[in-house]
Inverse folding.
């Protein structure tokens, strides 16, 4: 890859602002190939040139991919002056300039959300032509009827006349308040709730459990986040049936 300024490289890895890392470099705290570099403007290839800061190797990552188990009541946004956002939930070591949620979950929807600073990855994941299915578990007020499964498969017409793309619907648990699994390839506003409303049913709670072939980590508590390796993040593009 092309060489970049040392201060830009360090700032991109959440080591401080450009001003802060510039001061670190001028203080002799950064070295390349074992030799101290005191010019923030000097350029290097972060993937080929071994860089250390305070004697510790820099584990350079061009992009960051995070899995978040989103709780209710949090906005799927990078920042908001009046409400807590999913970026606000990230611990300091996962904070990074330019991080944003790839797609969104409604404020009262829980579960799997990916955050990244890789715009190309997010665009590919959300593009309809990629056919990435998002899977949700819906706790329902009433049982699922066979005709509901057929309507989802054909494409539900919403109350405003909008017709959804064909979707998958299956029952995970029966009873007075069943749990259904829904697979969508699009993300209209409150879509799952509106689809069930069109079938005269009501969603009591909603949780996203999978994107493509990437499942929500069952060990990840609500509000928790962890880093995804690139190969793990790439699972979102694996096509799997429900």
């Amino acid at each position: 890859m092309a060489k970049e300024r040392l201060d830009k490289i360090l700032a991109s890895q959440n080591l401080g602002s450009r001003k802060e890392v510039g001061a670190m470099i001028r203080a002799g705290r950064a070295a390349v190939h074992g030799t101290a570099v005191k010019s923030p403007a000097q350029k290097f290839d972060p993937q080929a040139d071994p860089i250390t800061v305070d004697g510790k190797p820099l584990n350079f990552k061009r992009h960051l991919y995070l899995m978040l188990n989103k709780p209710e009541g949090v906005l799927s946004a990078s920042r908001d002056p009046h409400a807590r956002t999913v970026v606000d939930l990230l611990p300091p070591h996962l904070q990074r300039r330019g991080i944003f949620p790839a797609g969104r979950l409604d404020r009262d929807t829980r579960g799997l959300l990916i955050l990244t600073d890789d715009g190309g990855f997010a665009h590919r994941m959300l593009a309809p032509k990629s056919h990435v299915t998002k899977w949700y578990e819906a706790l329902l007020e009433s049982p699922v009827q066979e005709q509901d499964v057929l309507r989802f498969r054909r494409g539900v017409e919403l109350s405003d006349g909008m017709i959804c793309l064909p979707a998958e619907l299956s029952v995970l648990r029966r009873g007075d308040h069943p749990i259904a699994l829904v697979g969508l390839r699009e993300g209209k506003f409150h879509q799952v709730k509106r689809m069930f409303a069109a079938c005269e049913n009501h969603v009591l709670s909603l949780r996203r459990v999978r994107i493509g072939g990437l499942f929500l980590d069952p060990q990840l508590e609500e509000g928790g986040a962890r880093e995804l390796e690139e190969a793990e993040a790439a699972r979102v593009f694996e096509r799997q049936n429900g």
Observations:
- The chain has six helices and 15 strands.
- Residues 26 and 38 are 4 Å apart (CA to CA).
- The chain has three domains: 4-57, 65-128+214-237, 133-211.
